Structures are given as structure tokens and as C-alpha cells.
Amino acid sequence: MSHANNPVVEIRAAVKHYRTPEGHAVRALDGVDLSVGANEFVTLLGPSGCGKTTLLRTISGFESLDSGELLIQGVAMNQVPPNRRPVHTVFQSYALFPHLSIGDNVGYALDVRGVARAERRQRVGAALELVGMGGLEKRKPGQLSGGQQQRVALARAIVDRPALLLLDEPLSALDRQLRQAMQRELKNLQHELGIAFVFVTHDQEEALTMSDRIVVLNGGHVQQVGAPQDIYDRPANAFVAGFIGESNLLRARVESCADGVATLVGEQGDPLRLPSAGLQVGQPLHILLRPEQFHLDCPGDPAAHGALDGVVEQTVFIGKDFEVSLLSATGSRIKAVVRDASRQALQRLHPGSSLRLWYALDAAHLIAGEA
Amino acid sequence: MLTAENRARWRLAGLLSPATLIIGLFFVVPLAIMALYSLLEPGMYGGVEWTFYPDNFGRILGWADGSNEEFDVVYLQILLRSFKLAAITVLLTLLVCYPAAFWVSRQPERLRNFCLFLITLPFFTSLIVRLYAWVLILRPTGFLNASLQGLGLIDAPLDLIYTEGAVLLGMTYIFVPFMFLPIYASVEKLDRRLLEASADLGAGRWQSFWRVIFPLTLPGIAAGSIIVFIPSLGNFIVPSLLGGARVLMIGNLVEQQFLAARNWPFGAALAMLIMAAVLLFLLLYVRWQGRAALKEAAR
């Protein structure tokens, strides 16, 4: 990604406070930095109240920053009203104008600027064609389904090719099937248009599927920025690990460091020996293990694998795989998804039987933890 | 034996009959009498002669030949003035209520409800008393002139009462609530997110107003205009208190014919003309609405 070279949006040290109705000050943004490159699909991901919508609305201009800088295409935008920013938004509620036809809705940005009639008709037609709604110019928004309204809202926002498109949880009102179809279409559309997208969602699956980069937010802070796979495989902290995908976080502590090998003791059971780079004696850590990283039998060199003992609490067949809930010897609850249960393995998975789960040492991701 | 369908029909008839009776007895029958009277000859000492007599309308519209009745253009002038004053009243109430409705709709709920209560407060006191208060304010020795003179701003009392301005002031004053409530209803329904969408797509405040706010609140404006225009046109209390003999409206004429001149047929003819004018306006409005609805359906 060339986002470092000439970013479409640059946000530096953004701070925004809110006052709740009870009078408490809430920091919606607490020193957020963000840069979005041309033609990049960036997703702001986080639980509700994490600041993602506030961040989006500061870019569109409906919220102003208490402090910090906002540049769009290199121009400072802090004092520029929403209607003079080269940015359009696809709203969560779609916000189509109910009194205007689909054609007039899509043509709104052009009408406001007084684009000539022939060019307007051509561009409205092209935008509707692009979202698969060609020929429906004469309809009214009330006559369309939710999915169709979604497409019209999209066409309306791209009709004059803004530098940047902001999408505020646009798919949250659609049913699952339609949502998945729209995810792919949005991604294709973004590629085709070459416009940068900033997409807000609380749905981690959506974020992983569509994004070039994901910005994980919580409590007004950026928790991690990275490609979907980075974020999934190497979460920066316990929050990201817990928010993205299913995870087991085991508390551990570095007991000793010698000859480049650190020994970890903790909830994983047997002491774990890992390369000691960057680790210090006494340091508290979390060991992240994804459910699908467990095996029933040691798949190779036992020296390169760790083992976890426990008692099976529950086993659920989820099609192809078994989801096992294991109460480990150290008292933590482990969720594992294991494959290929031969007859013997099935017996091992009965609730109450003791089980040893294996994992590759290099799959275990270490996260700095608090004691 | 009553079938289910018959029972339903009887029940419907039972439910509708009180309303039908009241409207029939107190609205349709008097209206029919008025229509009949407007075509009868006025009796010498009030009452009517039972002969067909088109000259009641002739006096107003111009076909009275002078043998029985004189055509006098003053009636049309008064009708025209009534239209003018009613139209200006609509504009003034609109001017007062439209911005106020936006302001009220943005207030926190408790203040909003309090404002709505204040709007309906005038209905708790008598209309005559409220209008007479304006007489006390506007007359030459009234509060306003006395204050201005006391401050030394004017030497002689201003000619405030018994002018078209005074009538307009009074009509605007009494019809503001009628304009406010329908407009407020449509303003409150307005989805603020649409205004954000409009700004987001590049529209300035002025453009957002004309392209989004105005068309979406137009039904409220239309409803308010109609329910202010119709009673304004026929109003006679305000012009008789604040307009005096100088600013007569068509309602005053009707009142005079019935109560003072005791020429019921002529009064009935005037009333019929007002009603015809109002109906014409409503018809145009309904056709305009109907056409919009038809266009909608055709899409």
C-alpha cells in the first residue's frame, strides 16, 4: 500500500470529548492517528462506543475535533463545513430523500453543483448501472427493498467520484445472505472505482473479509492497525485478540531466560520453552492460542509442540469438526476445534474423559500482559 | 335470522347514525334552506316571498337591471378585499409559525411540550375578550399611542385601529395556533439525517432548505394554509372590532344582512358565494394533490 506516500486522509492526535446527559465527560477519541492511502479499503473496527463512528463523522465534518489535525488530500479540513469536503457518506439508515425519485436522489450531488442535464443523466445512469440498479430512475425510495435502497445510497455517494467514501455500518440492516453478497460487491466496486473507502463496522468477520487494513479501536484509542491476517495472527494486545476471532488467552510468566531460551510457566500446564528474544525474567504474558490451532495427536516433533491436559466438559459436532470445551489442569477453560475424530478419538472426546491437546510452539502468539 | 353480513351492516349503520343525524339536521338541512333562500325574494319586513328571484345574486355579480335591485360593485370589492386579507393572513401566520416550529422541534422534550401548551393557551379564554384587548391597545387613547406619546416619539395619536393593518394583526393573532400545529407536525417528522445527507452531498444551507426541508414540510404548510384561509375569509368578529365601518369583510356583510337589514335572501346569496369560492379553492387543492398521488402511482 502506498498510503504513506500521498494519503487521502491524515489524522493526527485527534481528541474529541463528549458530555453525557448525566454530565460526565467521555473521551470518544483520545489521541487517534490515522492515514488512509489512495485506493485503500480501511475498516474502523470496534465495539459500540469505541469511537469509530465519531472518527468517521469528524472526517465527514459532522463532528469537530477538540484538538488534533485532519487533512484530506493534504488540505487542513478542521474548519471546512461538510458540504465543502470532497467526501461522501453512505449512511447506516441510507437517508434517501423520500420525496425524490431514485434518479433525483442519485443526481443530488450533481444538481447541487449545477451539472448540465445531459451529463447528469449520463452519470446518474452510469452510477445506477454500477450498483446493478440501472433503469430504476423513476421509482421512489419507498418502493424499493432494503437491499435496493442500500445500492441507491451507494450510487448516490459515488456519482461524482469523491476522493473518499465513508461507509457507516451500511450492511448492518441487511440479512446475512445479502450482507455477504454486498461485502464482495463493495470490495469489487472499490477496486473498480479506485476511490479510498473508510468503512465502519462492529462485525469482525466483515472487517476481515473486505479490508486492506483494519484499524481496531477501543475506548477512543487505536489498539492496532494492520492487514487482516496480521491482526488475526498477531494481535497486539489482549483486547484485539479477544475481539477478533475466537481465542484462548492463557496467563503466563517468564521464569528464566538462558541461552536464548525462555521458560514460561502458567496456565498452559507444562513449562513452555520459547525463543527468549525480547523477553525478560518475571515478565507477565498472555499466550494466545486460536481454537483451530489445537490437535488431538502430536502432528510432529514433540519438542516443537506444547501439550495441554484437561478434562472434556462438552463436545459439539459442528460439521466436519468437533468443538471441544476443555477444563485444563490449571483451571482455565479452553475452547478447541479439532478435526478427524476416528472412532477412538470420539471416545476421547466424551465429557468427563481426560484429554491432551497439542499445539505447535510457533503457533503460540505472545502478548504482553499485565500481572 | 340475521346473517353475519347483515349483522355487520346493521352495526355499521348504528355506529354511523349519530354522526349522520347531527350532520344532516344541523348542517345539510340549514345549508339547503340557505340555498333555497338565496333564490327567493326578500319580504318587505324581513321574511321571504315564495317567488324565484335571481336578483340577489344579480346585485353582487352584475345582472340586476335596476328595476328590483341595483347592481353595486362594492360587494365584489369587499369580496376581493376579503380574499386579499385572508391570503395575507395566511402569509403572516406562515411567517410567524414556520421558523417557530423549527425552533420548538429542537428543544428538549419538556420545554417542547410546554411550548405546545402555550400555543393552545389562547383557546382557554374568550375570543372576544382577547380581541377587545387589542382594541384597548390600538385605539387613539390606547396603550400603544399613550406610550409613544409619553416617550415623546409622536405628537398626535397614530391611526392604528380601524385599518386593514389592524384587521390583519387581529386575524394573524387569532389564527397562529391553527397554522402552527399542522406545520409543527410535519417539521417534527422531518428526519434530521436527511439534512446530514444533503450537506454531505455538497448542498449548502439554502439548497438543503429548498431541496429537502421545504418539500418535506409542504404538506404541513398546505394543511395549515387551508385551515387558516377558510375561516379568515368568512371572519366577521375581527373586522367588526378592529376594522370598524372602514374595513368591512364579506363576513360583516352577511352578518349585517341577517341581523340588521333583515334581508335573509341577500345574506344567503352572499354566504353561498363565499362557500362557492372556498369550494373552488379546495377543489383546486384536491386536484393538485390527486395529480401528485396519481403521478406517484404511475411510477
From TrEMBL, chain A:
SUPFAM superfamilies from the UniProt entry: MOP-like, P-loop containing nucleoside triphosphate hydrolases
Residue ranges annotated for the ABC transporter domain, each copy included: 9-244
SMART domains: AAA
Pfam families on file: ABC_tran, TOBE_2
GO annotations of cellular component type: ATP-binding cassette (ABC) transporter complex
Enzyme type, top EC level: translocase
The keyword Methyltransferase is assigned to this record: no
EC assignment: 7.6.2.11
Superkingdom, taxonomy of origin: Bacteria
Keyword Repeat: no
Gene Ontology MF terms in the entry: ABC-type polyamine transporter activity; ATP binding; ATP hydrolysis activity
Keywords for the protein's UniProt record, in alphabetical order: ATP-binding, Cell membrane, Membrane, Nucleotide-binding, Translocase, Transport
Family: Belongs to the ABC transporter superfamily. Spermidine/putrescine importer (TC 3.A.1.11.1) family.
Subunit structure: The complex is composed of two ATP-binding proteins (PotA), two transmembrane proteins (PotB and PotC) and a solute-binding protein (PotD).
Reported function: Part of the ABC transporter complex PotABCD involved in spermidine/putrescine import. Responsible for energy coupling to the transport system.
Record protein name field: Spermidine/putrescine import ATP-binding protein PotA
Gene name of the record: potA
Automatic annotation (TrEMBL), chain B:
One of the record's GO cellular component terms: plasma membrane
Keywords linked to the UniProt accession: Cell membrane, Membrane, Transmembrane, Transmembrane helix, Transport
Nucleus is among the record's keywords: no
InterPro entries xref list: MetI-like, MetI-like_sf
Cell compartment(s), UniProt: Cell membrane
GO biological process: transmembrane transport
Lineage, opening ranks: Bacteria, Pseudomonadati, Pseudomonadota, Gammaproteobacteria, Pseudomonadales
Tagged with keyword Protein biosynthesis: no
ABC transmembrane type-1 domain ranges (all copies): 79-285
Family, as annotated: Belongs to the binding-protein-dependent transport system permease family. CysTW subfamily.
Residues that span the membrane, as ranges: 12-40, 85-104, 116-137, 166-187, 208-230, 266-286
Protein name: Spermidine/putrescine transport system permease protein
Main localization of the protein described in the UniProt heading: membrane
Membrane-topology descriptor: Multi-pass membrane protein
